[in-house]
Design brief:
With 38 residues, this protein is mostly helical. It has 1 helix and no strands. 95% of the residues lie in helices and 0% in strands.
Length: 38
C-alpha cells in the first residue's frame, strides 16, 4: 500500500516537473520565434 502511494507520488512529481518545464519552454520558444519573424 505504502509503496503504491510512493510510486503515485513520484509519478505526480514527475508530471508536475514536466508541466513546469513545458510551461517554461513554450513561452520562450514562441517569443524567440516572434523575435525572429518580426
Amino acid at each position: 500500500m505504502r509503496r503504491m502511494l510512493r510510486e503515485i507520488f513520484h509519478i505526480l512529481m514527475k508530471n508536475m516537473k514536466l508541466i513546469a518545464i513545458s510551461q517554461n519552454i513554450i513561452p520562450t520558444a514562441s517569443s524567440a520565434l516572434a523575435n525572429r519573424f518580426c
